[in-house]
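Final report, Chapter 2: Outcomes

The project's central promise was a pipeline that accepts a single protein chain and returns its three-dimensional structure in a standardized token representation, suitable for archiving and comparison. That pipeline is now operational. To close this chapter, we reproduce one record exactly as it appears in the project archive, with the input sequence first and the structure output second.
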Amino acid sequence: MKALIDTNIVLDFLCKRKGFFDDANIIFQHCFSDVDGVIAAHTVSKQNECAIMSEVDYIVTRNIGDFKDAELRVVSPKEFIEIVR
């Protein structure tokens, strides 16, 4: 499985953001083992383009509304954790 990890999830993990770190940590643990994680530190339109070019299965983000026109499945961190468990 392949997923684009949105910039906000990366920052949640790196900055250990209160209320968001636990989910981001679980996602990154999966990226270190059974999920191919893709990161694109660009604008939303560039992230969608990167996700398509990288042939990801999901875009994981806390800002689902930013991807309302995405051609791929967009999920929240909690939804993605349920998928990979």
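Archive annotation: The radius of gyration is 12 Å.
This record, like all others produced under the grant, will remain available to the consortium after the project formally closes.
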